[in-house]
């Protein structure tokens, strides 16, 4: 390539550069640019001054840094430019770009064009004659280029601008700064229209003055813009850092006041960032080697700029031009770049055939395999669809979006998205449901939210392919949208998951950020646009204009910037992928957007074509224009000229103008083979194996299911005898053998443990070993259970009296039984400490009397038969009723937490007695999350995340008792085992589940792995089971385990969003949960079967509890307690607290505890924790052991 430089010796001169380049496709293209003394860089031949001064935007493309009627004819003002690729210059350029775009990486410019307008004055302004007192400005433009993007850096004097306007046609007009595309040719037309003009400063002089006072790069007076990707300036994206860096000393909004004409010495130049000219010997670093796609340019002689004024001598500027950037015409287009992730390995088709589509063939290559769609189908081989057949896309949309200046976001979860594309003419229709009225109108400008399916199935022009043909249906798309001028930002993330069994493309979409508000009732119009899709790149950017028509008849034109990335998998051996045009253009027109407030639907429609990036006469064949009249289930086949034929898609029959579905199941009944049923679908069919059979590895043949055998139940296991070992069924046909407590071995052979050799009994006790067990007995003179023995204490007077009376009545015969007194004999009664009971009675005569401490009868206290003496009852000892809490009346109640209090609602059967609802407990400055109830002691337990702590109080009133106050961060779930006297809780910050006694002692961590956001937890004491939910957004799940931490199992992991609430009903044995993501209440049995939906479309449930036929859940958005009848699957009642705020945990207070066997009665004989499990229990030690502790399984 060659470089030619011309210096025109004119009062208004420009330097013109012609660059000849050879792009990758070997097409010879000429690009040109011109540097103008009026403060701009033109990318095509500029017009005369009268056609652009004061008449912006201009009809030619330009970068205007300080465009006005400027003058350098006095010899003081000068214009320099050079091309530089030295490391020191490039590093300084990288520093500015990286500070403006902190999230961008791999910024590696290969060269920079530096243009300096030094000490230029406004034309027509005259001073005293020597020119030194004229107002002058110095400013600079740097264009940095690299393979994937180009950037423009604009420098303005930090000490302020000397002037901000120039005379035009006798008037003072503010200068312009911005980027103009000029005239662009319309698509499929020979006419031209004015392209976009991105303005940096407005017509307001204050806006121009701010060029030197503010920034978008963190440095005062420095403005950085990404201006697109070679070979097109595709878009303008401003820097993201509008706050000044700390070293600047002044924050935005507190700009230092700089006078319009700051004082400076005559002849002093304003400071600039890059020197306008430098001699080569100033830096001896060798020039870096350029990438192979850039060719060295011939060295050009240096041209001095000769000053016209001979009175003053200035250094002669020198220009070096070793390299030059590709500066090219603007185009009104979008760029979309792709990052190909080669996911295929070196495996072969023999083991991977099932990974290909059923409409594809697998082919082995030297380095692996590839899938190829068969004739009549298109795609990437892993996903294939029939040519000409309409395509559908289904998915879910979730988001958290702020609208306008609203401080609160609008949240929505799993809203349905449906799309339909008529593939043979490129028309796409998209609808998203349940969009609230506060958000729907403002989503109208985002037609590309669902329009990506238009690109995937766009009408293909000759030699070009749509997205699905190239990359299939599995890819990721992320877009960053910035709205101007308000700088609102929105992030769009979409995961396309391929084609499902119904031939529908599946997608999930997430929105996060802020949208400018579009008033309700307004309509939005989007003009036709084009996108450039480049394969193999990783970044993109674009600008989009849209028009908002308001109800009052006014019209607003607005803009947003779009940056996106698409990542997909590809096969490196696929010749078809390598032959894809590297750059293709998507043309979108007939765009229709509408928000249907009545049905809460947002609708988009558009027509899409994929073809060449170059202009030219449009294709006339109807197959390429979409005007062919073929059936929607037919492919259009082009012929000569405008001739074409219509052919029905695979799975349809007809003449192409009308196509009918082929019922393969009826015409070929044996098509699915044995043990399978055939289900016909439009254009295809589906085979399903009958019960008891499943598909083999080839995905076609149905084979009998290998039914599992429970060898433990059948008795066909090889474990030791049941008296010594236990057989545990683990699923499928597997089992585990383990020795019973008191035996040791591998479960197949177990031997008795002699516990007496281990010193298990007290030192003052005798140990007796037995098979699988042992006993301890205190020695004579000691009493206790053998594990703890204490010396016999001296008997009290009451005890001696009882013993003497019993001995005196002994018959003298030896017996192991306690002697019995004579029927008429009176025997005193002693309390637990051996003292006389205050009231003594003689049953034989039916009289009672009071006694003193020595057992002597108090006179005048003896009563007649059947009566008890009067006595003074001492006041009760312990907690008393709190003055601000009313004790709860007998009966079943609902307890629920609301910020700083716990309230109760009496239940009349299953109806909420709302009139009697009141506060049970006031907890100011606390946030109560979980609530649980102990039916034995009538105590309410709760967790508090502000302490954090776990506490309890009596339903009958009394003081608050703190149970756990240390080593907590965010306790959010709580469960009570009323049988084993245990409590369990989840901590969502520490990501663990713990257990402790009901008094908070003997804490033990059960689980601290594979937990992200555990919240609800419930217990099933009768079976020793725990259930909990983890609302991890990346993988929500519901799990189960025994209370001792064994047999942990994931019960549910599919179709979950935010499972906040969980409850277990022991009567119906149903596990139910409330999901704020799917907005459903669902139930199933404890084994994960028979899952069903109770209600759906609810708002934001938090907690749930079961009582009889009803489920009661709390809802954050409704700020209410809601009743649901799970036998009729409908909502029956709602309670709104008097003070409206978020409601949290909920529990019931049953009048009596459910009857069940208590394996941990008397603590199961454990030294510390007795933890139940199915049909047994386990003795476990707390994490902090006080003294000796023994662990064992029973």
From TrEMBL:
Keywords on record:
Basement membrane, Calcium, Cell adhesion, Disulfide bond, EGF-like domain, Extracellular matrix, Glycoprotein, Repeat, Secreted, Signal
Question: Which pairs of Cys residues are joined through disulfide bonds in the record?
Answer: 841-848
* CDD domains documented for this protein: EGF_CA, nidG2, TY
Q: Which residues form the Thyroglobulin type-1 domain?
A: 795-871
GO CC terms, sorted: basement membrane; plasma membrane
Q: Which PANTHER family does the entry link to?
A: NIDOGEN-1 (PTHR46513:SF6), VITELLOGENIN RECEPTOR-LIKE PROTEIN-RELATED-RELATED (PTHR46513)
List the protein's name: Nidogen 1
């Amino acid at each position: 390539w060659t470089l030619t430089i011309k210096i025109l010796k004119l009062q208004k001169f420009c330097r013109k550069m012609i660059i000849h380049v050879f792009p990758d496709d070997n097409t010879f293209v000429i690009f040109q640019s011109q540097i103008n003394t009026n403060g701009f860089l033109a990318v095509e031949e500029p017009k005369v001054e009268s056609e652009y001064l004061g008449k912006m935007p201009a009809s030619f493309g330009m970068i205007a840094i300080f465009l006005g009627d400027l003058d350098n004819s006095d010899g003081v003002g000068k214009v320099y430019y050079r091309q530089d690729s030295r490391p020191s210059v490039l590093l300084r350029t990288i520093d500015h770009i990286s500070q403006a775009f902190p999230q961008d990486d791999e910024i590696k410019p290969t060269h920079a064009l530096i243009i300096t307008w030094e000490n230029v004055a406004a034309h027509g302004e005259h001073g005293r004659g020597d020119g030194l007192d004229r107002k002058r400005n110095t400013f600079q433009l740097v264009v940095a280029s690299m393979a994937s993007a180009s950037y423009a850096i604009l420098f303005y004097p930090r000490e302020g601008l000397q002037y901000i306007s120039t005379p035009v046609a006798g008037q003072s007009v503010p200068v312009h700064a911005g980027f103009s595309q000029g005239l662009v040719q319309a698509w499929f037309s020979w006419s031209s229209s004015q392209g976009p003009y991105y303005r940096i400063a407005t017509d307001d002089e204050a806006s121009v003055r701010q060029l030197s006072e503010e920034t978008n790069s963190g440095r005062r007076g420095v403005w950085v813009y990404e201006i697109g990707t070679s070979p097109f300036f595709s878009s303008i994206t401003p820097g993201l850092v509008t706050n000044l860096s700390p070293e600047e000393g002044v924050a935005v909004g507190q700009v230092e006041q700089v006078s319009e004409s700051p004082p400076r010495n005559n002849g002093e130049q304003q400071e600039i960032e890059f020197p306008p000219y430098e001699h080569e010997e100033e830096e001896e670093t060798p020039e870096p080697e350029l990438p192979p796609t850039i060719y060295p340019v011939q060295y050009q002689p240096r041209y001095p700029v000769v000053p016209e004024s001979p009175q003053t001598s200035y250094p002669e500027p020198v220009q070096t031009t070793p390299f030059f950037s590709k500066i090219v015409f603007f185009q009104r287009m979008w760029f979309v770049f792709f990052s190909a992730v080669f996911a295929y390995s070196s495996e072969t088709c023999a083991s991977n055939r099932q990974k290909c589509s059923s409409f594809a063939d697998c082919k082995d290559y030297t380095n692996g395999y590839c899938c190829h769609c068969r004739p009549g189908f298109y795609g990437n081989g892993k996903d294939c669809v029939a040519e000409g057949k309409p395509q559908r896309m289904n998915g879910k949309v979730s988001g958290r979006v702020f609208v306008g200046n609203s401080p609160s976001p609008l949240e929505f979860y799993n809203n349905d998205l449906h799309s339909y594309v008529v593939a043979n003419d490129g028309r796409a229709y998209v609808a998203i449901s349940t969009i609230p009225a506060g958000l729907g109108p403002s989503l109208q400008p985002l037609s590309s939210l669902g329009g990506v399916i238009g690109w995937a199935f766009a009408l293909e022009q000759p030699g070009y392919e749509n997205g699905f043909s190239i990359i299939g249906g599995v890819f990721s798309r992320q877009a960053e949208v910035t709205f101007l001028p308000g700088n609102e930002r929105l992030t769009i993330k979409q995961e396309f998951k391929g084609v499902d069994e119904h031939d529908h493309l599946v997608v999930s979409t997430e929105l996060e950020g802020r949208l400018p508000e579009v008033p309700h009732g307004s309509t939005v119009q989007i003009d036709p646009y084009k996108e450039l899709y480049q394969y193999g790149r990783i970044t993109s950017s674009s600008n989009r204009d849209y028009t908002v028509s308001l109800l009052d008849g006014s019209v607003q034109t607005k803009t947003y910037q779009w940056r996106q990335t698409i990542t997909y998998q590809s096969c490196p051996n696929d010749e078809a992928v390598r032959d894809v045009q590297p750059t293709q253009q998507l043309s979108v027109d007939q765009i229709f957007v509408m928000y249907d407030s009545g049905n809460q639907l947002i609708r988009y429609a558009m027509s899409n074509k994929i073809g060449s990036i170059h202009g030219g006469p449009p294709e006339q064949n109807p197959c390429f224009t979409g005007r062919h009249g073929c059936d929607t289930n037919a492919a259009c086949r082009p012929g000569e000229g405008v001739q074409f034929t219509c052919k029905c898609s695979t799975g349809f029959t007809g003449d192409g103008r009308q196509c009918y579905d082929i019922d393969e199941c009826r015409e070929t009944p044996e098509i699915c083979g044995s043990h399978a049923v055939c289900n016909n679908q439009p254009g295809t069919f589906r085979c399903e194996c009958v019960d008891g059979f499943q598909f083999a590895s080839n995905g076609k043949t149905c084979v009998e299911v290998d039914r599992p055998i429970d060898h433990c139940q059948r008795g066909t296991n090889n474990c030791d005898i049941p008296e010594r070992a236990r057989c545990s069924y683990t699923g499928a046909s597997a089992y585990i053998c383990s020795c019973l407590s008191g035996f040791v071995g591998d479960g197949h052979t177990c031997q008795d443990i002699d516990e007496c050799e281990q010193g298990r009994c007290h030192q003052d006790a005798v140990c007796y070993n037995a098979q699988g067990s042992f006993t301890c007995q205190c020695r004579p003179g000691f009493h206790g259970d053998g594990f703890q023995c204490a010396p016999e204490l001296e008997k009290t007077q009451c005890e001696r009296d009882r013993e003497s009376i019993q001995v005196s009545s002994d018959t003298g015969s030896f017996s192991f039984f306690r002697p019995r007194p004579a029927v008429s004999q009176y025997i005193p009664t002693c309390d637990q400490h051996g003292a006389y009971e205050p009231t003594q009675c003689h049953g034989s005569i039916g009289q009672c009397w009071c006694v003193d401490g020595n057992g002597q009868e108090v006179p005048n206290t003896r009563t007649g038969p059947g009566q008890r003496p009067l006595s003074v009852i001492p006041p009760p000892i312990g907690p008393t009723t709190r003055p601000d809490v009313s004790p709860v009346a007998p009966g079943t109640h609902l307890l629920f937490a609301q910020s700083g209090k716990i309230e109760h609602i009496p239940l009349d059967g299953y109806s909420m007695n709302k009139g009697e609802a009141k506060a049970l407990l006031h907890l100011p400055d606390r946030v109560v999350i979980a609530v649980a109830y102990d039916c034995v002691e009538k105590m309410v337990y709760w967790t508090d995340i502000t302490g954090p702590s776990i506490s309890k109080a009596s339903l009958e009133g009394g003081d608050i008792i703190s149970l756990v106050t240390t080593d907590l961060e965010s306790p959010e779930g709580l469960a009570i085992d009323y049988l084993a006297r245990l409590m369990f809780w989840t901590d969502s910050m520490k990501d663990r589940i713990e257990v402790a006694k009901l008094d908070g002692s003997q804490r033990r961590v059960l689980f601290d792995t594979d937990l992200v956001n555990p919240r609800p937890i419930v217990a099933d004491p009768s079976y020793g089971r725990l259930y909990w939910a983890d609302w991890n957004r990346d993988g929500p799940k519901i799990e189960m385990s025994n209370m001792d931490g064994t047999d942990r199992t994931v019960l549910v992991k599919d179709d979950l969003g935010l499972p906040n609430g969980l409850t277990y009903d022991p009567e119906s044995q149903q596990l139910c949960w409330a999901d704020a993501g799917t907005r459903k209440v669902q139930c199933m049995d404890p084994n994960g079967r028979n899952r069903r939906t109770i209600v759906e479309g609810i708002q934001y449930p938090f907690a749930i509890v079961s009582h009889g036929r009803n489920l009661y859940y709390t809802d954050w958005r409704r700020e209410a307690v809601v009743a649901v009848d799970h036998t009729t699957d409908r909502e029956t009642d709602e309670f709104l607290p008097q003070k409206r705020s978020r409601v949290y945990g909920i529990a019931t207070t049953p009048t009596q505890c459910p009857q069940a066997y208590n394996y941990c009665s008397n603590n199961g004989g454990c030294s510390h924790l007795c933890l139940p499990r199915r049909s047994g229990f386990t003795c476990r030690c707390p994490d902090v052991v006080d003294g000796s502790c023994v662990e064992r399984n029973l």
